[in-house]
Design the sequence.
């Protein structure tokens, strides 16, 4: 088997359904498997998988074991030569895995005994905006300092945190990749021991990437395929989040660096600033929709959606310039690749995007990278 896609889920039933739908389409020509691990969700995630995707391997944990252990459990049962660690609040394009695996194959031909470690890709949020954490540098105390105080915005000289030696549309070596999408050889994952289970969450992807570097491998950012990561959906930015974030960063530095009083000082300031910013960002973002534009090639589906969504007007997208528009895609009519490409090209402050998932009759999307996302159940 070529690939195992590992999806760890916790209470994001609707995002999980959309994610699995996209992954199934992307694996149609690949010898692969999907493994969903559920960390004791209370939102009928498991029931949905059993009903809609009965052929997918589902592992039901009896408690929330955290991101590292949950993924390790999934990888332990994987059979693929390669694994993909994938967040449930993501959408992959139909050719994402094909492109990634082709990149690996070509690299192996050009570089004997290829030293490729982890491969990541371009991530965008629910509004089509690039997520800079798609590629990062090792957050040493100095690099953390430049990030916390925004120096990376001033000059690329301070741009190591977000690996600014590469633009979002350049592929190349980077130090750290984000855990929302990671592809690597299963053998390498097991060789380094997988995710460190002493870290409950948040520094796990940094640690895994760094462990791969210490093995003499190179991690790569691959820009030629794009994945939507709704990002804010799986995490509530509350006091518990901040406590775990601080613990995670302390874990990483204790494990890999000597104790640094400078770092301790920077972390205290950084956590305070981060907490303040996230608390303000996490306030509900209200957005008035002036008009909805529905894209569907199915006339019956189009009529249904027009009746189910409150519309002020229905007209061609090209005629709407200064209004706040909500673009609704019928995922039975358009590929996820087409939807992602449209978002990439047409991203704008006055546009938001939702996908219609007919299996369960709902709209899904997110209007901001820190927004927890929106689910609108439609009535028949």
Sequence:
């Amino acid at each position: 088997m070529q690939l195992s896609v590992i999806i760890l889920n916790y209470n994001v039933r609707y995002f999980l359904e959309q994610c699995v739908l996209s992954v199934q389409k992307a694996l149609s020509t690949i010898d692969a498997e999907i493994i969903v691990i559920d960390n004791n969700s209370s939102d009928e995630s498991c029931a949905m998988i059993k009903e809609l995707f009965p052929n997918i391997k589902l592992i039901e944990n009896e408690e929330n074991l955290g991101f590292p252990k949950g993924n390790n459990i999934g990888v332990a049962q994987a059979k693929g030569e390669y694994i993909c660690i994938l967040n449930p609040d993501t959408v992959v394009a139909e050719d994402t895995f094909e492109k990634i695996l082709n990149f690996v194959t070509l690299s192996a031909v050009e570089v004997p005994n290829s030293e490729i470690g982890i491969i990541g890709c371009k991530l965008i949020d629910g509004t089509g905006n690039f997520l800079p954490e798609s590629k990062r540098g090792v957050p040493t105390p100095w690099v953390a300092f430049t990030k916390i105080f925004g120096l990376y915005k001033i000059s690329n000289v301070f741009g190591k945190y977000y690996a600014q030696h590469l633009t979002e549309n350049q592929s190349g070596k980077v130090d750290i990749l984000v855990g929302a999408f990671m592809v690597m050889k299963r053998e390498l994952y097991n060789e380094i021991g997988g995710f460190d289970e002493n870290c409950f969450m948040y520094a796990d992807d940094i640690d895994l990437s760094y462990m791969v570097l210490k093995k003499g491998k190179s991690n790569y950012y691959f820009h030629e395929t794009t994945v939507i990561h709704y990002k804010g959906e799986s995490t509530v930015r509350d006091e518990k989040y901040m406590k775990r974030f601080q613990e995670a960063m302390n874990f990483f530095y204790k494990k890999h660096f000597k104790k640094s009083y400078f770092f301790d000082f920077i972390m205290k300031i950084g956590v305070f600033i981060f907490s303040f910013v996230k608390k303000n960002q996490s306030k509900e973002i209200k957005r008035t929709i002036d008009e909805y534009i529905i894209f569907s090639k199915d006339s019956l589906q189009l009529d249904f959606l027009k009746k189910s969504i409150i519309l002020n007007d229905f007209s061609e997208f090209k005629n709407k310039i200064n209004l706040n528009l909500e673009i609704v895609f019928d995922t039975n009519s358009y590929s996820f690749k087409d939807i992602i490409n449209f978002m990439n090209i047409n991203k704008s402050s006055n546009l938001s995007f939702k996908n219609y998932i007919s299996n369960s009759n709902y709209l899904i999307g997110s209007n901001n990278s820190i927004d927890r996302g929106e689910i609108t159940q439609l009535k028949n």
